[in-house]
Write a structure and sequence with these properties.
The protein is built from 18 helices and 18 strands. The protein is α/β, with parallel strands linked by helices and 506 residues long. Strands 1, 2, 9, 10, 11, 12 and 18 form a seven-stranded mixed sheet that branches. A seven-stranded mixed sheet has the order 7-6-14-15-16-13-17, sandwiched between helices. Strands 3-4 form a two-stranded antiparallel sheet. Bound molecules: flavin-adenine dinucleotide (FAD).
Amino acid sequence: MSNMAEFDSLILGSGMAGLSVAALLARDGERVKVLEAHEYPGGYAHTFPMGKWSFCAQVHYVFGCGEGETIGLLLEALGLEKTVQFVRLDPEGFDQVVIAGERYRIPNGLEKCRVRLTHRFPREAKGLRDYFSLLAKVAGELASVPDKRQLSDWLTAPIRFSHVLRHRNHTLQDVYGQLGLSPRLQAVLAGQAGDYLLPPGRVAFLLHAALVSGYDSGAYYPRKHFKYFVDQIVGTITARPGCEVLLNQRVERIEVREGRVAGVRTADGVLHTAKRYISNIDPGRTVELTGRENFPARYLNHVKREYSCGSFTMYLGTKDIDLRGYGFGSFNTWHYPHEDINAIYERQVVRNDLSDPWLFMSTPTLHTDEPGLAPPGGQVLCIATSCAYEPFRDLRASDVSAYRRLKHANKERILDILEANYIPGLRKHLAIQVVGTSATNERYCLAPQGNAYGIALTPENTTSRISMSTPLDNLWLCNASAGWPSVAGTVGSGIKLHQLLTGKAI
Ligand SMILES: Cc1cc2nc3c(=O)[nH]c(=O)nc-3n(C[C@H](O)[C@H](O)[C@H](O)COP(=O)(O)OP(=O)(O)OC[C@H]3O[C@@H](n4cnc5c(N)ncnc54)[C@H](O)[C@@H]3O)c2cc1C
């Protein structure tokens, strides 16, 4: 069977990068078709219902929503800037890091953050000055690196981008070593490490600087929740004549003839054709679906990278309790049992031991007054932490009840930690408990190894990203790995690919 209607662009996957480029091309008047395997659009940003509650699969807060910033630019280009609004998380402490019971509030404003931390760590005033000064310089230089580099950019790079060049191969831990910061202060400054899911000893310092400065300019939550945000973008595509977003359409084969993609076959046997193919599917998987024999060895090496780790996620629907009375609010809480974040990650991800994990806790029903996630009197608490992949995958494949028992044991352990440290008697108020592992990420979002942020955000993978163009001239990649992760990062990747394809800024 063949679907003969000729589309201009076929987008494989409806993650935020795929939807962004699809929506911009549709706006330009192209005939666009999006094929999504899942029953909901949005990839990791999709929302699923469970009883009377709804949960966004993985996204909790975003940056880049201000005027002229990435997400703001996309919404403006699509005419959605008034429809999709964002609320800011508490600027006095949008992220709150709790280390062995001590709470540190991360405010907007790097200078304010420095001054606050200097009060808490007076002996480290110099280290803090040096750290924040370096962070600001690196973030400033990164923001001014042009997408298309001219000869003059290369010639002036040693002066204009001196801090970026000096630290391009450094981890956050390397920089800590250079600055001589205490273990406790190191942990506080890496408190948002879950936003890249790597410990200081492995994460690229440049990535850390970009992330910290991204949220520093504003941490946001969509006023009407993530489902509304995703649905509005999808709506701009389906409203265009001849454009479609098709769900439950898993791509099983990308067919190649004479060095070009000739069509894409979905699980129902239908061949979908277009002039251009944009894969929002992981780059390695895209190669597998296309057939490795269609790519030169050099390219196969280019896409072969270490993945970021997976996540253990708990979606809790509460009733008859106001989490505001327990230290939660319009902010996220990062719990660490002690200050050695490198050791905590190693134990969880390498040794598969979730007995004393770090925890990210977010309360979307306290970020906005808009209904939509919980019934009256109900609230949502989402918990996430890093975890291994293989043990969950293997158990799920070999013994589903043992897999469920492992999930249950980890969940109960985490509930013990929550009751002991934050919300005594929480279990009595739980109306819904849903648990996901890295195997769940793979099952529902088709993320290889359940990876959370595409390829691991190490120095090597930060200085060299997977390119959006491929050796097949009508096949393009656009996602967290061929581009950048996070909602702002993937939206930015969609905007960048649109510009590459059309030569037009949005
Ligand atoms: C635990 C966790 C917490 C996170 N928290 C945040 C946060 O708070 N803020 C933030 O900004 N970012 C967060 N992220 C990261 C962010 O969600 C991702 O970087 C981003 O959403 C990835 O978008 P993407 O476009 O790369 O595609 P993905 O979200 O990976 O989506 C790809 C899509 O392609 C589809 N697909 C795959 N294979 C096929 C196929 N064969 N056929 C058809 N369709 C296919 C999938 O079903 C999926 O819908 C988090 C991620 C995780 C895991």
